[in-house]
Specification:
Number of helices: 51
Radius of gyration: 41 Å
Distance between the termini: 91 Å
Shape: elongated
Length: 924
């Protein structure tokens, strides 16, 4: 536990406790453990607030309990209850910094089970960095022979006996809101200044001490403390090596000179050693110094926040070999195994061997086993270790039996190796069962191999669980594989967390995201990538960006591309392009395409062509199409045709259409038509052909558009026939437009409506009505409206009311006409309602249509009203008409304003009317 910084006027040692979001979870777990015994574990970063949260839960749930707080490394076996002895009642075993209490004679799975069965509550905290180190030791030693891994696995099995409760370093919004309500100067300051750090982290002064240490590496002439910084660096590295706890000052004095030289040595004008120690040991903020006083005289220990911060920084180099050797000169029987274990996890076998030799020579069985492992990995000579291992193996030590089997296997003495593995497995060593699986599999005895694999998995060996799950997956036996993935995930295996979460996600299980998050938080890159996609799918772009960034920074090209897309969509296109570039360099084809598009947008045609070419050659067909388009724009017709033809041959519809466009434009339609007609029977190709032609119409390329539409129409596509009518109408050929629309009308209601409109313009109202009826029967609203207008104009308003009411809620013109109809019949109140509805629905075009309706009937007041609405909605013709109406009734100033607006919007007739109004104003 860390002290809290002192406030200006707060005399208490601790600030008031601010409830954390996990309090209910911690207290519920503690209450359940108090019923019959149990294990409660809180994990989190250094200075996250684990210890304070646990203590406050203890106060709330078990006030007045008897607290057992053993020192680090204490033998916990005396706590066992003998048969017949009463169990524990309201006793709590407090294990702050649990890593100091794991190992032989300390907390092992069997001991934990016995203690909790006797009613003891075990309450522990563990820093994430120590949790990760333990897991890495359990997973990271290569080969079958890894007794240091066995010790780590024993500790990991203890951790896997409980679901840890994570105390977050960064406080949630609700937690921060509670901080803001507390009247305490320290908390007030923490709330105002914590920045990107947690409240507990700020109170423990961790970030400030880390920053001060880093700043101190400057020369003394610039305010630095280089010797003091070197002392701290040496203490931190010695702690990582394995000198957990007190570090002798004599050792620090000896080794820090190397760190000082690395910083710059004499050029920094370092302070004296006494000044350096005083500076590093000074208590800051009433909380801690960079170096803390050890429990033994003449020792120091680094502030653990610094140790964890360095462990999280991938850019920090490993301690040099000289540091390891110096540490061993000062190591004792307690710290030698720790140094050896760290050395073995770093594959420093010579150092591990040196650390263990004195213990092995004294006959310590565990040391002998670890010592022989180091020898094997360093020299690969089983002859040297067999004499040391055989006596222990024959005495029944299962780990020695395991290692002896491995040594014999290296000498191809398989029969005896098998015997010792079997003995170790019968002794309950799950790694031996797993070794037998590997042994029998190598001999092709798959059935026997699987039997031992299942035994190892059932005994709780995590690697066996994941191997068995993988084996079952390869057999397509997902029903049996999935429970093993789940067991491995619950046991703390990161890969299993990812696979289990991924499987849950595939079937839409809400639990999936929690497992993916746990895997991602442990550094699983693919889990972070999928978590980014999952949060993006549910609309949480902040979380999506966070996890895609994590995965992208870890080198995942897919996430880098997704991050680029997210950033580009929100306007950060330059940063998005940077991530496209990283993903493209990683071989991601879509990122290559996206980067090429960005470069083209920036005017870098050469860069765009290069990336499209690379993506296309790697199999990304859309890039072949885009490269062809770029080459065509540059006038390289032959090159364009080559790449467009490759895209078309690969099935890309847009590549096909661009190729057909190119051939038509180059006056080779006889080459283009067979290409299109060969595939236009595919509905997707036909639909995209018409869409492509419409885009050409809008781009003022009617000739190619017309050719494509005619070919598509001849192939039986009514949408092409309809658009041929539009093209003819736009080109001023109404007779041809009518012919095409008549052909399309049976399939496309808008075509029937347009035929009716053309006929109405020619005064052929009866035939127009028949075409509008055809469109209206197919659900065309405008056609229904035109029919209603005809009914009203012919004096049959009552017949028009029903269709108008059907349309009035959605169509402003219908609401308007219904209001007119009702008003003419005296229903002014309901008419006013429908006119208000028309105003709510109106757009500029609809309002202008309403004005035209009243103008045809000579109602100037209502004409002006609806013209004004349309003009105010931005319609330029309405602005012209309103200006003319206003001028007619003498409102010249208002008329000038609207006519000027029409002129500004490009209405051709506006300047003439504006000049006339201004002349009238001048004459007045």
């Amino acid at each position: 536990m860390h002290r809290a910084r002192l406030g200006e006027d707060d005399g208490s040692a601790l600030p008031p406790y601010v409830p954390r979001d996990v309090d209910d979870q911690v207290r519920a777990a503690l209450a359940a453990a108090a019923e019959t015994g149990g294990f409660v574990l809180l994990t989190g970063d250094s200075t996250a607030g684990k210890t304070r949260t646990a203590i406050e839960a203890l106060r709330a749930v078990l006030p007045g309990c008897l607290l057992l707080a053993p020192p680090s490394g204490a033998d916990l076996r005396p706590l066992l209850r003998a048969p017949g002895e009463p169990g524990y009642e309201r006793h709590v075993l407090w294990l702050d910094d649990l890593e100091h209490h794991l190992g032989p004679g300390r907390l092992e799975p069997s001991l934990l089970t016995s203690l909790t069965a006797a009613g003891l509550v075990v309450l522990a905290t563990l820093r994430d960095e120590r949790y990760d180190t333990l897991r890495d030791m359990a997973d990271g030693v290569a080969g079958e022979i890894g007794p240091s891994r066995l010790a780590a696995e024993s500790g990991l099995r203890v951790l896997n006996m409980v679901e840890p409760i994570v105390v977050r370093r960064l406080w949630s919004d609700s937690e921060l809101a509670r901080v803001a309500e507390v009247d305490d100067s320290r908390l007030t300051e923490a709330y105002a200044r914590h920045g990107t750090h947690g409240i507990a982290e700020y109170l423990a002064a961790g970030p400030e001490l880390l920053a001060e240490w880093r700043r101190a590496q400057r020369a003394t002439t610039r305010g630095g403390h280089p010797r003091g910084a070197a002392l701290v660096a040496a203490a931190v590295d010695l702690t990582h090596i394995g000198l957990i706890g007190d570090v002798p000052e004599a050792l620090l004095r000896e080794v820090h000179e190397g760190y000082l030289r690395a910083l710059g040595g004499p050029a920094l004008r370092p302070e004296s050693y006494a000044d350096a120690v005083a500076w590093a040991s000074r208590i800051r903020y009433g909380v801690a110094g960079l170096l803390m006083e050890g429990e033994r005289e003449g020792t120091k220990r680094p502030f653990d926040y610094l140790v964890d911060s360095v462990a999280r920084d991938p850019g920090v180099p490993d301690p040099p070999d000289s540091m390891w050797h110096a540490a061993l000169e000062y190591a004792d029987d307690l710290t030698r195994p720790l140094i050896a274990r760290t050395a073995m996890s770093s594959r420093r076998w010579a150092i591990a061997e040196r650390a263990l030799r004195p213990l092995a020579e004294s006959g310590d069985a565990e040391a002998v086993i670890n010592y022989t492992s180091a020898q094997l990995f360093q020299r690969g000579d089983p002859h040297e270790v067999e004499p040391l291992l055989r006596p222990l193996a024959e005495a029944g030590n299962p780990v020695a039996q395991l290692n002896l089997a491995g040594a014999l296997r290296m000498r191809n003495e398989d029969a005896e190796a098998e015997r010792w593995w079997l003995s170790a497995a019968e002794g309950g060593l799950s790694l031996a069962s797993y070794s037998l699986f590997a042994f029998y599999r190598s001999k092709g005895e798959d059935q026997e191999a699987e039997r031992w694999l299942r035994r190892a998995a059932e005994d709780g060996y995590v690697k066996a669980m994941t191997t068995l799950a993988t084996l079952l997956h390869q057999r397509d036996d997902e029903a049996e594989a999935e429970p093993w993935w789940r067991r491995a995930a619950l046991a703390g295996d990161t890969e299993a967390m990812y696979v289990h979460g991924h499987l849950l996600r595939l079937r839409g299980d809400d639990e999936a995201e929690a497992w993916l998050r746990r895997a991602a938080e442990r550094g699983h890159v693919r889990a972070a990538a999928i978590l980014g996609r999952a949060t993006d799918e549910r609309g949480d772009l902040t979380e999506a960006e966070k996890w895609w960034r994590v995965a992208a920074e870890a080198g995942n090209p897919e996430s880098a591309n997704e991050l680029g897309v997210l950033l580009s969509r929100r306007g950060d296109r330059a940063e998005g392009a940077d991530w496209y570039a990283k993903a493209a360099e990683g071989g991601h084809l879509i990122a290559m395409f996206n980067l090429a598009q960005w470069l083209a947008y920036q005017g870098d045609a050469e860069g765009a062509k290069d990336w499209h070419r690379r993506a296309g050659e790697a199999g990304h067909v859309p890039s072949l199409n885009n490269l062809g388009v770029l080459l065509r724009h540059e006038g390289d017709v032959a090159g364009a045709e080559t790449f467009l033809r490759r895209a078309a041959d690969a099935g890309d519809v847009l590549g096909l259409l661009n190729l057909v466009d190119l051939l038509i434009s180059e006056e080779r339609p006889e080459k283009a038509q067979p290409l299109l007609l060969d595939r236009i029977g595919d509905p997707d190709v036909g639909e995209k052909t018409v869409e492509f032609a419409v885009r050409l119409m809008r781009a003022d390329r009617p000739d190619v558009a017309g050719t494509l539409l005619r070919w598509a129409a001849e192939a039986g596509r009514p949408d092409a026939t309809y658009n041929l009518g539009l093209l003819s109408h736009l080109q001023g050929r109404p007779e041809e437009a009518e012919r095409w629309w008549r052909l399309a009308a049976p399939e496309i209601p808008s075509a029937a409506y347009n035929v009716g409109s053309l006929l109405a313009e020619r005064g052929e109202t009866e035939e127009a009505a028949s075409w509008w009826s055809l469109a209206a029967d197919a659900g065309h609203q405008k056609a229904t409206l035109r029919l209603a207008e005809q009914l009203i104009d012919s004096g049959r308003g009552a017949a028009a009311e029903a269709p108008l009411r059907r349309l009035a809620e959605e169509l402003p013109e219908a609401a308007f006409l219904l209001g007119v109809l009702l008003s003419d019949r005296g229903g002014h109140v309901e008419a006013a309602h429908w006119w208000r509805r028309a105003e709510e629905l109106e757009d500029a075009d609809a309002a202008l249509d309403c004005a035209a309706y009243f103008a045809e009937r000579g109602d100037e007041t209502r004409t002006e009203l609806w013209c004004r609405k349309s003009a105010e909605a931005g319609h330029p013709t309405a602005a012209l008409n309103l200006g003319v109406l206003l001028a007619r009734r003498g409102a010249l100033a208002d008329a000038e304003s609207w006519l000027a607006e029409a002129e500004r919007r490009g209405v051709d007739a506006a300047p003439k009317f504006l000049a006339q109004v201004r002349q009238l104003q001048a004459e007045a």
